[in-house]
Amino acid sequence: MQPCNNAALLQSGYATQAMSFLEYRFLLRFSTAGESHGEALVALLSGMPAAVPVDEAFLARELWRRQQGYGRGGRMRIETDTAHVLSGVRHGATIGAPVAMTIANRDWKNWEEILPVGAGDASKHKAVASPRPGHADLAGSLKYNFRDARYVLERASARESTARVAAGALAKLLLRELGVSVLSHVVRVGAVELERGYEWQEIVASTARDTVLLNCIDPETEQRMKGEVDRALRTGDTVGGVFEVVAHGVPVGIGTHANWDERLDGLLAQAVMSLQAVKAVEIGRGVTAAESMGSTVHDAIAYAEDQNGSDTRFRREKNNAGGIEGGISNGEDVTVRGYIKPISTLRRPLGSVSFETREPVKAAYERSDVCVVPAAGVAAEAMVALTLARLVLEKFGGDSLPETQRNLAGYRDQLRSY
Fold this sequence. Notes:
The chain is an alpha+beta fold. 36% of the residues lie in helices and 19% in strands. Helix 7 crosses helix 13 (373-396) and helix 10 packs antiparallel against helix 13.
């Protein structure tokens, strides 16, 4: 037998495989399962350190927030989303084991015979025989060789984002213990846009409201946004918009410039773009920066105290970079905008083609929303929180929350003495 050495391992490729395994093993990672009209949605989150307090009221409110917003459809009047924690949490805190959660679909009682696990009664099947433009219906049916888009749309539906919000709530609870908060607000619906700046506390106050219209921090702008939704509702149409996620308190040094797939901005863009109906992602002032001069885009650097005089550090006079430079967080608020297209299902359907006859028909209609921009912002908060939590744990490690906190505190001491 040949002696085992590094050169032989590298030549054989085993070292590369082992390295990939180790890199994957230590990531905070999550997955979801379930269909829009199935019995339940499932969220599985592994890699959470032990001793993170789990506030069930906070988890419930996060799911409630995803259901709110002017322009939501009838489904939101049926569901009352509640996460049932099956594992990984005991006596109010994580225990270092994978966290499994289910969110029941109350509408399942109306679909048990339509979408049974077994063969069931074919006469009760509710086929989607004409694909909807803008949805995954046609591409998915071609990919999986279905003659019915039902199986595609059930999983492609944004109902899946409910499970992401549940997982993201746990990531938020971890980040909260490390001094990081993640919230969103709506900056555009249709042609109506928020045209002024904002402070972090305005987002906090807006998010704390017990009633949600369109989650815009400015009441006058929000009313004009409502007019855009009303216009779409009257004409059987749908309307999109732009939400902004802000991560406050992110320490400098999260992410890296060293490898393309480890850059914070790239990871956040992929995470937010993965949400249903999001078609573009912007970091900071990314879109308008493309048409501006460099002198007006780049953030001048100063070394100064904060407003309270309690923290002296390197600061940016503005935050056009969105808190990220060179793929690394720079200590300012991390800002990510998602551009969400109008929902694909229209009450006044567009033209389509029958799967069976290939003849022109109107696209199938499934109960849907008119505007989901506020809800998409909440789902994007979850994706941003999960991404930041993963990178924070990669940088600071820790099998338990106190260990992670100690490591972060030591790093902050290093920054203060720089």
